[in-house]
Design brief:
The complex is a heterodimer of chains A (242) and B (168). Chain A is mainly α and 242 residues long. Helices cover 68% and strands 8% of the residues of chain A. Chain A is built from 7 helices and 4 strands, in the order E-E-H-H-H-E-E-H-H-H-H. In chain A, the strands form 2 sheets. Chain A has a two-stranded antiparallel ribbon with strand order 1-2. Helix content of chain B is 89%, strand content 0%. The longest helix of chain B is centred in the middle third of the chain and has 131 residues. Classes of the chains: A mainly alpha (242), B mainly alpha (168). The interface between A and B is large, with 42 and 31 residues.
Amino acid sequence: MDALEIKTIFTISLFGTTLPITETVIISWVVMAILIICALVFTRKFTEIPKGPQAILETMVEFLNSFAKGQFGSWSKYFGYYMGTLFLFLLLANIIGVLSPVEVSFMGREFIPLFTIAPPTKDINVTASLAVLTILGVLVFGIIAKGPLGWFKHLLHPMAFMLPFNLMEYGTRLLSLSLRLFGNIMGGYVLMHMIEGLLPLGLPMIASLYFDFFDGLIQAAIFVFLSSMYLSEALKTGHEEE
Amino acid sequence: MLDFSVTFIITIINIFILFLILRKILFKPVTKFIEERAKKVQDSLDLAEKERNQAKGLLKQYEDQLKMVEDQATEIIRSAKETAQAEAARIVAEGKAQAELLIDKGHKQLEAEKRAAMSVFHADAAALVIGASSRLIQRELSDEDSHHQAELLLKELSDSAVSKPEDN
């Protein structure tokens, strides 16, 4: 099960410490590069009457804007684009594994690929850091939006004895966010590896359609929707809660 | 499998960098573009509405003008007709008057001719009567006498006649 290990590609010496740059980080950078290049290419030739990719892009951005408005109200300009970025990153990170060349044993001969592409989101570091960002946002912006007193009152909502549970919610949400994404992608990755080992060439494609594409899309959407919901809940002031 | 490492920090930095870049090159420009186009469409719609209202106003103005002109034309035609009728009536009246004048003149002429003929007849008749009577009485009467006689005779004759010669 070497597939589960995350290889360190190289190290960087910084401030006297060595920073291991793992394959996760490398692939994350690849994902970022693809997103940036796509953004540059698709937004290059914008015309008055949208055609093809421009129409899709506009629809996406408009959906994001209206979604953000509905979720965050007056805060939408701060969080809408972050959620959009998060979704694009997670989507591509979840499904980039399909580009990976696979080990093939054919007629008694082994083809071992030079490199493999594993989805960055099968690394707990990535999912946990994103979940931590979300929960930190919920905490910090909740206090900013409600005011410290209002935020504390909200912890006692609906009754005082709910305080520990309300506090615990931060932890459980953090765990569930990070582990759901990690578990899904990791599970899919492991399963796909097993299927690739068991089935002949070509057949794993059908399984890949679900485990890589569909599950990847769904998990990215779930992560972003839940983050948005937690955040919009935190931003609501007392009047809107009733 | 669950070993936390520096990747955690790097991912946070990554996502922030990606957020800033995508906001700059994707979300903001596209949003701006959409908003600008919406504004443009709205502006052109507003302009079209304005122009339509203007056109409506102009149309009404033209219609009013046309109506005014039509009224004027009707008025002109009516007054022209009236003038023409009056003129025609005047001409007819003039003609009538002239005709009456002519007829009157004719009457007068006729009267004069009648009178002239009458006097000629009187003279002839007198001569005839004188001739006849002188032959009758076998003597020549003096001119005045005979004339006097004839006159008397004629008077009698003309008294029995219908039309009486006036001053004779």
